[in-house]
Structure formats: C-alpha cells, structure tokens
Amino acid sequence: MSSTPHETDSDSPVAHGSDAVGWTAWPAAERPLRTVILLIFIAALSVLAGMIGGDVLWAATGAALLLATLNRWFLPTSYRFDDDDFEAGFPLRRRSVRWKDVRRVVIDPDGGWLSARRVESRLRAGAGLDLYWGREPEQAMDMLMSVAVAKRDAGVPIEIADRRAGSKGAA
C-alpha cells in the first residue's frame, strides 16, 4: 500500500481509484461550537499556567502542548480502505492494518475502533486505530460495517460490535 496521502472531500466518503473508498473527518470544522469552547478552555489553562509559572513562556508552552496533544481534533484525519488494507492518515502520522489481521471492529456513533487484537489493553493502546466518522457518519459507518462483515464472511475472524441505536449489537 502506498504511503502517499490521498485527497478526499471532507463532506462525504469518496472513492480513490477503482477499488478503494474512504472519508475524511475533521472534528474542529464539523463541530465549531465545541471547538470555540475548547479554545477558550485551552486559553484559560494557558493563562493559569502563565500566572502560576510567573512568565508568559509558561502560558505559551502550555498552549502549545495542549494544541499538540489535541492535533486529531484540530487537523483532518483521512481514512481509506480497499480489499487488503485499512489506512488512517492521522495529522502527524499514517497507520495501516491489513484486513487479514483485523480481529475487532467497534462501530459507535461517537467514534469507532479497529484493532488487530480482540481484547484491548491500556498497555497496548497502539494496537488499534481510532475512527472518527466525518460529516456523513451513517454512510461512513455503513461502509466500514459492510466491508467488515464481508471480511468476516470470507473467513477473517473479526468480532464486530455495532453500537448504533436500532442495531442488534454484534453483527
């Protein structure tokens, strides 16, 4: 799989070539009110750090650290998958998982999880991918669900948890 980024339209899932599909999620642009509240909170904590530290450098450092740790909120994340791989282009790095290695898919309206492990551990948090759904969450969740079910039906031992309202739970 290529490690070059693929351009997507942030408004809807799109096709990349003939057999790959994906979507882009950008929480800061999709939830502007929450973003403003978050920026106010970051500014308040930065001012507090500056007051406690007695220097404006403490405030600037606090703001920079908070913004850096929240990079997945403030910068777009792209998701792309085809018959072989699922790839997430996070703001600071790109990660992929081969479908044959996927063991667990969680689909929830608040976000999802795709992992090469059935049982998650805080010690192995890097074993999976966080999923954000973008502007058309139902379409993105349905795309992922259909591919995961097809892979499971083809013999990949994937545990699927669908936590959407009206779903039957694990498919």
Report on the biggest sheet: 5 strands, antiparallel
- The strand order across the widest sheet is 1-2-3-4-5
3D shape = elongated
End-to-end gap: 28 Å
Q: How would you spell out the order of helices and strands?
A: EEHHHHEEEEEEHEE
Structural class: alpha+beta
Provide a descriptive summary of the structure in words:
The structure is a single chain. The protein is 36% helix and 26% strand. It has five helices and ten strands. It has helices spanning 27-30, 32-53, 56-69, 71-74, 137-153; strands at residues 14-16, 20-25, 77-81, 85-89, 94-98, 104-108, 111-115, 128-131, 159-162, 169-170. Strand 4 (85-89) and strand 5 form a beta hairpin. Helix 2 (32-53) packs antiparallel against helix 3. The chain is elongated, with a radius of gyration of 18 Å. Mean pLDDT is 85; it is low at 1-18.
Chain-wise SSE layout:
Layout: E1 14-16, E2 20-25, H1 27-30, H2 32-53, H3 56-69, H4 71-74, E3 77-81, E4 85-89, E5 94-98, E6 104-108, E7 111-115, E8 128-131, H5 137-153, E9 159-162, E10 169-170
Parallel strand pairs: 6-9
Antiparallel strand pairs: 1-2, 2-3, 3-4, 4-5, 6-7, 7-8, 9-10
Helix pairs in contact: 2-3
Using brief descriptors, characterize the structure shown.
five-stranded mixed sheet; alpha+beta; five-stranded antiparallel sheet; 171 residues; disordered N terminus
What's the quick description here?
The chain has 171 residues and is α+β, with helices and mostly antiparallel strands. The chain has helices at residues 27-30, 32-53, 56-69, 71-74, 137-153; strands at 14-16, 20-25, 77-81, 85-89, 94-98, 104-108, 111-115, 128-131, 159-162, 169-170. The protein is elongated, with a radius of gyration of 18 Å.
